[in-house]
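COMPLEX REQUEST
Ligand: iron/sulfur cluster
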Amino acid sequence: MNTIAILFGAELRDTAFEELMPGKSAFLLTLTRVREFEGITKIALLTGDEFNEERIPQSAGPLVLIKKTVWNTKILLDTICELSAGFDLIYFAWADTPLIDAELSRAIKNRIIKYAGEYGYADGWPQGLSPELFLPSTAVFLAKIAEGSQEAVRRDTIFSVIQKDINSFDIETELAPVDLRSYRLLFAADSRRNLLLLRRFLEAGWRDYNDAAPLIAKHPEFLRTLPAFFPIMVCSVCPQKCKFCPYSKNSPAAEFMQPERFSSILDKIIAFSGDAVIDISLWGELALHPARIELIAAVLERPQLSLVIETCGIGWQPGDVEKIAALNAGAKPRLNLMAPVSWIVSLDSASPERYFNLHGEGFEEAAGFAKTLLGAFDKTVYVQALRMRGEEDDAEAFYRFWKDAGAEVIIQKYNNFCASLSDESAGDISPLHRQPCWHIMRDFPIMLDGSVPVCRERQAAGDTEFLAAAGADTTFETAWERGAALYAEHCAGRWSALCERCDEYYTFNF
Ligand code: SF4
Ligand code: SF4
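STATUS: Structure written out below.
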């Protein structure tokens, strides 16, 4: 069988070229491992125009380099078609996946041959362990489906095109004996976070894909790398007293984080995590911050960061949406491939009466604000509805209304903030077996006074334990390290009294 490996390398981060093992980067390891795939007679590397060929080590062996100024779904598929003509099978992967596995690829290839499949992939393993495999004729069909598509290339691009006409393909899957999808792992050197993850697995003696499940079970601490999500409180005031929110019990004096301080926090985040999602505002309403546009601009000036604005949709001034939309349109692409700005508008009901019961006044303004956003932002406006006992009757109407309006809809579970609020949950959707908390694994909340609580839930419930106290000169590294002990407790199946009462551990932000 005459096969070609096509590696996508146009979106690689510097972390792909950093040393991962002695003398070897993730990029070199990927090129080396791909050469072990069965039947390989050609390797093609797809890059941007600016790619410096000196980054390809001599030891990588011969390959065909295809440079283009622009890559999108259609261009990618057309290029795959051109390169694969005359071959029997294509292996497609990203060029920063150093654990990509020849044996797992062989198993998928054998399935495709045995069952006359057209496309095959590994299901249940962490992403990055196997390429996608497909026939050159499949690539031709996919290129036709993607006609005119200018969508950016993402890790799931090939499968997302297949999904547009999924019944037309014979798909073969190599299923993992233990389903590891719930860990949401990506074995790719696409960030400082995942580089650390790869290093830990390699240093623990990684040999092949069969090591994934046992190593995860033996070293759950490997999965807590660097924080990815930074909810930051930038102002103390908000315009509502929402029934479901512990912050509504407060009547704070107006206090605002100054833009200089906010910018300095952003720089510290980049220095520590490399890239991140910034969420404002942890408590309080960004719309009421006098320097709200400046704060948003500060995030967008830094391509390492993407921004999520959580708002009740009340208090925004005329012209704000246009200014933010202009900043969003002018922002450089984000390193984490997310949109520069995403919005979450807390509306909770399609009915003014129910809205009043949950939020108080403001239905018209909040719903009107969400509609204005929909006219200014493409696919990054989410409206949120809380699932709360006795408040669910219009959930379907809410979903339909906002879907038809072009919004993405988030149905959020009720949070009783470690039982500091009464239990109003509409049902128990927690997993059968409790897992370590996503929030101490990935989140790093920062309060207005600079303190770093363990999590938003414990802070709201009056926790006295902080990873960094207000006014203390604690580095982000030290604060994060303090959370490692708590995470280890969770891994060992022990929870503090507050965590014991919390069911937010299985909710995932970014
Ligand atoms: S949900 Fe937002 S607006 Fe409502 S009380 Fe809480 S912080 Fe204020
Ligand atoms: S389990 Fe709940 S209280 Fe404990 S760290 Fe996670 S989110 Fe916070």
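REMARKS: Residues 238, 240-242, 245, 247-248, 283-285, 312 surround iron/sulfur cluster (ligand 1) (CB under 6 Å). DSSP finds 17 helices and 17 strands in the chain.
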